[in-house]
């Protein structure tokens, strides 16, 4: 059972997951209805990614010197302002500005200014041995509600079809609803038993003063893993399946839904495994088989075999996520946990964004699944490097 404090943080993660899953999909429809070109829409979406990364990093580096409640309430207020900004602005430059400074996160992860403080507080909400299980529930809540949010994107069209609201008004109202989720998060944060003191003790201390070396090493390793993942992001898998086996997006949609659900629930298995063999071994021993299945997908002679390889991959590919988060929290001092969370997550997000264009170039040259082979190879290299560098520093052993 989750205690009261941890439960509230899991619920706020779920609310944000629903909002991002919902708003990131209707964003494109809203911008298209406003008459923006594909290039302009792409620029606004890119701004949301870059802005989220910049805010997460900036907040994480100073979060230990700020009152936790103030950070979380300010983040919630910005979420409300983001929803209202997208609902009211119509020009390209105002929308670009809202996208960059706002909280909307169109990626599958939770790179947002909420992340550093929430993860640091979660790490303190349970004993070190229970962190993997707690982070697994936290991630699962975000993933499931994110999927629910994506499924709810048909609601504005349904409302418009009844004649109750014009289609454009229904889309604007959806962004207002996104902002109101920030209000709900704020109410939950107000119920947390937090002191007014910052996470750290010395306001003049430099960020990551004691753990800079280990955090930067982890950030570099995690970036290598994410760069490999970027070769096999969902959109590139859809493209490869279409070129290799002629599968239409409508055919692969249910497949990807099953993959996402399998990956989300597999995280719950990480806790008992980590208790038995440790965090680092859990990350490596579950990740290598998943990456072998990723590379093997490229050699599949038929679509059913390719899909089976991907489902087998997803059965263990995300078990490293809660173990990774718990590992970061366990190898740094308490006052540097928020900064470590941001510094290890932001580069991962940026590294993922670098690879799809390279994957596209490989697919343009050949219909063979070279991106899957390259991605799997890079991720296995990360697994081996992580094991070599951190098996002796595993805080759970």
Give the distance, in angstroms, between the N- and C-terminal Cα atoms: 24 Å
The overall strand count is 0
Give me the CATH architecture of the largest domain, please.
Up-down Bundle
The CATH class of the largest domain, by name, is: Mainly Alpha
Q: Residue share in helices?
A: over 70%
Q: Notable features of this structure?
A:
2 domains; 17 helices; 397 residues; globular; Growth Hormone, Chain: A; mainly alpha
Report on this model:
This protein is an all-alpha fold and 397 residues long. It folds into two domains: 4-190, Up-down Bundle (Growth Hormone, Chain: A), CATH 1.20.1250; 212-393, MFS general substrate transporter like domains (Growth Hormone, Chain: A), CATH 1.20.1250. Helices cover 75% and strands 0% of the residues. It has helices at residues 4-33, 38-62, 68-88, 92-101, 115-124, 131-151, 155-162, 167-190, 212-230, 234-245, 249-266, 270-277, 279-297, 303-314, 320-330, 337-365, 370-390. Helix 1 (4-33) runs antiparallel to helix 8 and helix 6 (131-151) packs across helix 15. The longest helix has 30 residues, at 4-33. The two termini are 24 Å apart. The mean pLDDT is 87.
């Amino acid at each position: 059972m989750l205690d009261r404090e941890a439960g509230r943080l899991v619920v706020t993660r779920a609310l944000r997951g629903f909002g991002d899953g919902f708003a990131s999909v209707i964003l494109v429809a809203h911008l298209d209805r406003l008459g923006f070109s594909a290039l302009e829409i792409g620029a606004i979406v890119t701004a949301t990614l870059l802005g989220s990364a910049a805010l997460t990093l900036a907040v994480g580096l100073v979060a230990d010197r700020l009152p936790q409640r103030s950070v979380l309430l300010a983040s919630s207020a910005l979420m409300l302002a983001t929803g209202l900004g997208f609902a009211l602005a119509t020009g390209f430059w105002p929308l670009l500005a809202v996208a960059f400074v706002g909280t909307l996160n169109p990626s599958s992860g939770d790179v947002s200014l909420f992340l550093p403080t929430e993860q640091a507080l979660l790490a303190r909400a349970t004993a070190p041995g229970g962190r993997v299980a707690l982070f697994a529930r936290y991630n699962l809540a975000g993933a499931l509600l994110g999927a629910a949010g994506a499924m709810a994107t048909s609601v504005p069209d349904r409302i418009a079809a009844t004649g109750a609201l014009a289609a454009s008004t229904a889309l604007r109202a959806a962004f207002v609803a996104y902002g109101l989720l920030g209000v709900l998060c704020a109410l939950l944060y107000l119920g947390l038993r937090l002191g007014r003191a910052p996470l750290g003790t010395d306001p003049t201390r430099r960020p990551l003063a004691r753990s800079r070396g280990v955090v930067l090493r982890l950030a570099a390793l995690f970036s290598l893993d994410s760069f490999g993942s970027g070769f096999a992001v969902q959109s590139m898998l859809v493209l490869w399946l279409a070129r290799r086996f002629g599968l239409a997006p409508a055919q692969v949609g249910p497949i990807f839904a099953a993959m996402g659900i399998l990956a989300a629930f597999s995280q719950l298995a990480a806790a008992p495994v980590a208790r038995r063999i440790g965090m680092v071994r859990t990350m490596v021993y579950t990740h290598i088989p998943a990456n072998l299945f990723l590379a093997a997908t490229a050699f599949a002679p038929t679509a059913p075999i390719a899909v089976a390889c991907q489902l087998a991959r997803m059965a263990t590919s995300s078990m490293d996520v809660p173990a990774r988060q718990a590992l970061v929290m366990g190898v740094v001092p308490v006052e540097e946990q928020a900064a470590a969370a941001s510094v290890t997550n932001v580069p991962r997000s940026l590294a993922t964004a670098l690879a799809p264009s390279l994957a596209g170039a490989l697919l343009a040259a050949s219909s063979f699944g070279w991106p899957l082979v390259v991605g799997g190879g890079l991720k296995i290299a990360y697994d081996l490097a992580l094991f070599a560098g951190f098996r002796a520093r595993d805080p759970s052993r």
